[in-house]
């Protein structure tokens, strides 16, 4: 996913100071300097500690926290329907038909249990009090954090035939919880509006919420999730979306492999409880070369894996090797299949449920429970062994797939060693076309990957040689979506990139050897440039995901236009900005007469330069020079530096991955072998394309 990023490197490159530690008098550091934050105050002081960030991801994390509470009711067996509504004025509501948050007075706090849950960190039914056997909200801060970061929140609870209500502003209760009328059934409804003073983004995205709810529906058999968008004043435009999957994670696997060709007919599935840990695993091999693994603990996606993934991978490798040996598919002289071999083209969903999950961080990116490893390993080993024995045709297809991967691995290793040995022999002079920077400090150094020798020449002349390196590419690199490593190493452009990064690749990847803190893709603003950029992003996503996850990959934003009126020059980066600039130029014309443009007209103009007439109130018609830059090579070195490479002026987009499953699917659709899904994608999104060069 792309996020706008204004990158500014200060003049510290020239004036960086060291040893800046100051002598601080002990008289200024006493008890009065120690702050004690009470109630929800810590959340508002450091929101990123609880929800990750205060941008789009953090905003939607509020929704996940409330939905997770409802999912906990589903897993406890008390709820089967959850409704989410996007409302006008930035409001959103989450309603379930669970038991309803208790409303009686809490002994420890002296106020209602509802108010306790909404205003006290680490208060909830998830800490061994018998409220939940399993729960995603280990830290118990979910709904209280949502309350703290909302300018308005309303809680409605149906219990014991009554409807209870309590409202809050910035986490503070406005009145005590009270019964306001009769109610049928039970359940909880939380309506809230995120605080605009906290979040940089306050608009909820329907697609982001739908993707999350779809995932939860796959993971929780028997739950119905409904989302309604009521933000339009016209009620006829209100849209309802529902998710319900009887097949659970088996259906999820089919969704993941929607644009791939499965290598065997039956989806492997096993569900079993070991040592009070419920383990559910589904997998199916496809014709791709990359692994897609979706691990969950108590329905929480663990983007960084954890012990359940370690146990799964150990069991997978051992079980397939044992089967291949027993069936004489692997001969006595043959080496064992590696973890890399058995994971090629594998789509897996691992879902475990346990009473006391140990997550790393509030966003639950990684599961740390050691007992989860042994439970998953046991269930996986026994289940996969039985599956292979009971489905001999599927077993043959699986072993055929992994044996082919093993042969390709051997060929790729030989090719890799040749490439890396070549790089070492060149004494890190690296590819001959690379114009390296003089700095050896990775944090300061930048690598510009530039399209073509012409743009490369301008970039080399215009750069700051101290910390900016330039690597021009000749033509389009290999599409790595459907290529193994041995084929990649036969491509000169790919080899140049790998050697330049210095990190190695595959199982030998070492991010500590990265030579450049910023790797910047700088291509032309046309179709070919977009294609090259997509190929490079595919390359990074499939083989250097750590570089993306650690924030090293950027896309340069060269200007699309140069607009001039007399001596006034503006660089314009979008078509929308162009119209605004024209109007600004006409305002300048009110106070300044255009300087002799007739002299300028005698000079040769670029093929993309045009004269445009703009009406001005005082001067009548004025002439503007509007130059459209289709290629970086059209800019001279000074222009390229001033607009695109100067850290104090440039604009760049930082590449991030916020939804691994969706990103993987998009790359598969756009860069894979199947034409039909790509055609459908293009037809669906074509009308959203603004700048199309033909």
What does this structure look like?
The protein has 694 residues and is an alpha+beta fold. The chain folds into four domains: 42-243, 2-Layer Sandwich (Heat Shock Protein 90), CATH 3.30.565.10; 249-409, Ribosomal Protein S5, domain 2; 426-558 and 652-681, Rossmann fold (3-Layer(aba) Sandwich); 561-628, no CATH class. The protein is built from 22 helices and 24 strands. The strands form four sheets. Strands 2, 3, 4, 5, 6, 7, 8, 9 and 10 form a nine-stranded mixed β-sheet that branches. The protein has a six-stranded mixed β-sheet with strand order 1-24-19-18-16-17, sandwiched between helices. The chain has a five-stranded mixed β-sheet with strand order 11-12-15-13-14, with helices on both faces. β16 (446-451), α13 (452-462) and β17 form a beta-alpha-beta unit. The longest helix has 34 residues, at 392-425. It is flat and about 75 Å long. Residues 1-27, 29-37, 424-429, 594-617 and 689-694 have low confidence and may be disordered.
Topology, element by element:
Blueprint: E1 2-5, H1 12-15, H2 41-45, H3 48-51, H4 56-75, E2 81-86, E3 92-96, H5 113-119, H6 142-148, E4 150-159, E5 162-169, E6 172-173, E7 178-182, E8 187-194, H7 206-219, E9 224-229, E10 239-243, H8 249-256, E11 268-274, E12 277-285, E13 292-297, E14 300-301, H9 307-326, H10 339-343, E15 346-353, H11 370-390, H12 392-425, E16 446-451, H13 452-462, E17 468-473, H14 485-488, H15 492-501, E18 518-522, H16 527-543, H17 545-549, E19 553-556, E20 561-565, E21 568-572, H18 575-591, H19 597-601, E22 609-616, E23 620-628, H20 637-645, E24 652-655, H21 660-671, H22 675-685
Parallel strand pairs: 2-9, 13-15, 16-17, 16-18, 18-19
Antiparallel strand pairs: 1-24, 2-3, 3-8, 4-5, 4-8, 5-6, 5-7, 9-10, 11-12, 12-15, 13-14, 19-24, 20-21, 20-23, 22-23
Helix pairs in contact: 4-6, 4-7, 9-11, 13-20
